[in-house]
Recover the amino acids of this structure.
């Protein structure tokens, strides 16, 4: 655990290597995952900017290394270096866009469509295949359920359905989408978000 919901800390962390996720637990103990961090990204900047307590848990899903910056030093860095401040603004806009997309999906899409969108969001384009997509390794069904506001049994059922329909192929820990265009009928919000550098 790197950050804990409700903690008063305001430090900023830069993820140097590894992977982190942002999650909140519901009152019944069910985790809801709504954001990932990859190497090079900044964590905890909200608290440093506004001085409020942490709004979620952030924990590592792999071995991870972070650099720590005090809140005062981070704010001074933004004030002294306009390029850094501009990068932070782009980062905050990207977060807002991503969360807006997730709210749209949770509010308007069925569980199957949310799962399809999440598979694309977590995956990467297949080299040499313009519409091919690959996710490796495949997250656990419980993890996919936490990411899509669903439950493990529904995820299992939907993955089996997608495989039967030929929309995904599962093989030795990886999942391939042969043609992402077949997953959605022209819904632009279902497309995976870009991943701007921070």
């Amino acid at each position: 655990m790197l950050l804990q919901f409700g903690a008063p800390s305001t430090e900023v962390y830069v993820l140097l290597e590894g992977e982190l996720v942002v999650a909140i637990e519901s009152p019944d103990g069910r985790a809801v995952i709504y954001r990932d961090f990859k190497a090079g990204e900044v964590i905890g900047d909200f608290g440093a900017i506004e001085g409020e307590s942490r709004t979620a848990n952030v924990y590592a899903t792999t071995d991870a290394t972070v650099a720590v910056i005090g809140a005062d030093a981070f704010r001074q860095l933004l004030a002294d270096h306009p390029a850094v401040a501009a990068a932070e603004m782009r980062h905050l806009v990207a977060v807002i866009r991503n969360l807006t997309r997730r709210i749209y999906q949770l509010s308007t899409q069925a569980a199957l469509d949310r799962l399809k969108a999440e598979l694309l969001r977590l995956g990467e384009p297949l080299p040499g295949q313009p519409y091919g997509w690959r996710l490796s390794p495949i997250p656990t069904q419980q993890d996919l359920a936490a990411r899509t506001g669903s439950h493990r049994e529904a995820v299992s059922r939907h993955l089996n359905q997608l495989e039967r329909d030929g929309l995904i192929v599962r093989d030795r820990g990886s999942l391939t989408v042969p043609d992402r265009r077949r997953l959605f009928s022209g819904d632009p919000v279902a497309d995976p978000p870009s991943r701007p550098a921070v």
